[in-house]
Amino acid sequence: MTDSAQTPAMDFADAAAVQEAYLIATAVSDAHPDGFITVDKDGIIDFANRRAARICGVAQDDLRGRPLRTALPFQNPAGQEWWEIADPWRSLHITTGFREASLILPNGHVVLVTGRYLRQPDGSILAVILGLRDAAGRMRAERQMADMITSVAHELRSPIASITGFTGSLLRHWERFSDTEKQVILHTIQHDGGRVMRLITDLLEVSRIDSGNLILAPRPVEVASLLRGQVDRCVARGEPETRFEVSIEEGLAPLFVDADRVEQILTNLLDNALRHGSGRVFIQAQADTIEGAPAVRIVISDEGSGIPPEDRELVFSRHWQGGAKSGAGIGLYLVRGYVQAHGGQIELGDRDGGGAAISVRLPTEPPRHSTASDSGG
Questions:
Q1: Which CATH number describes the domain made up of 32-134?
Q2: Among 269, 270, 354, which Cα is nearest to 304's?
Q3: Pick from 218, 217, 228, 289: which is nearest to 255 by CA?
Q4: Torsion of CA 153, 157, 163, 167, to 10 degrees
Q5: β partners of residue 360
Q6: Is the pLDDT of residue 5 over 50?
Q7: Please, what's the b/e burial string for 351-376 (b: 16 or more CB within 10 A of its CB; e: otherwise)?
Q8: In sequence order, which residues have a C-beta less than 8 Å from that of residue 210 and are 6 or more positions away?
């Protein structure tokens, strides 16, 4: 067989291989969570994966084969035509693309777009590759952060106004106040200053949890003294002792935890039960396991109306307040972060007989991993 007779068969094999590679690449692209669009040297879209079409709110067939400018007439938030600003075909030859930009389509879709330019040796455009991401998730996160900042600002305003108001009164009218009145004012200033410090501390802890930089100092901690101490503090703040029912299994091994963080876990859970629940508050502790390792399970429940299943994940988000008119909404977010940092587990469910029940399992042995938090958010 001559070389010329072999050539058509080899060409067919090469074409089949190219087609197979194209199909694989297309399947991989369609499975990717980001959108991809490729544009040829003449500005015509020659490929768009399914995700790109979904992000842009158009059909794939309405993208492929159309000029980029008319198929995707992006505008920036200032209302300027994007392809007039970042025209790949009129850019300098050293320009390799553009960084992520938040752009808007006429249908209202907000898209995060990045561009990469492939150039010929002479600098002319060979192809343009666009990466697209849906901006909705980022916008939700930004709104949540804005909501939390608003809540924190609201929480700070009251104690700071109290502190500045009382200190101003003392400075202007010191001689008019009796010693008893001065004591009351100073105690109020101290209390409100403590509120500000606690809120700032909580925000710092949120930052450490989010960044995975929460460092624990675990040591053995007796469960019974820990729980009874929490009840004593609640009673000292004015809660009737009869509102609490404590049940602790005998012979429980000590927790191996960071005592300060676990105190905060229990404080936040009890405050949540007292503020959002009603009736009695039940505190139970019993032996359990975490993935086969020994642990203690602590359950705090109430006789309130409970939490609807659809809200149970929101409870642990950074901005959930459950209808409360006060609080920054980060208490249970901190609880989950602390529990996960210990390698523990937390669950929210219903109490038998009605009410919400939050269950926390914490280890009784030294962890096998680093004490740095894995963050879990």
A1: 3.30.450.20
A2: 354
A3: 218
A4: 120
A5: 298, 346
A6: no
A7: beeebbbbbbbbbbeebeeeeebeee
A8: 375, 377
Domain ranges (residues) in the chain? 32-134, 138-211, 219-363
Helix (H, G, I), strand (E, B) or coil at 119: strand
| CATH tag for 138-211 (out of 3.30.70.141, 1.10.287.130, 1.10.3720.10, 1.20.58.1370) | 1.10.287.130
Q: Which of 139-153, 191-205, 228-242 has the highest mean pLDDT?
A: 228-242
User: What is the pLDDT, as a whole number, of residue 32?
Assistant: 64
Give, as one character, the DSSP assignment of residue 75.
B
CATH architecture assignment, domain 219-363: 2-Layer Sandwich (3.30)
All residues at 6 or more sequence positions from 145 whose CB lies less than 8 Å from its CB, including other chains: none
Arithmetic mean of pLDDT, 344-361: 87
Residue found by looking up tokens 């990045």 in the block: 114
CA distances from 37 to 47, 50, 91, 105, 368 (A): 6, 10, 19, 15, 46
Query: What's the whole-model pTM score?
Result: 0.56
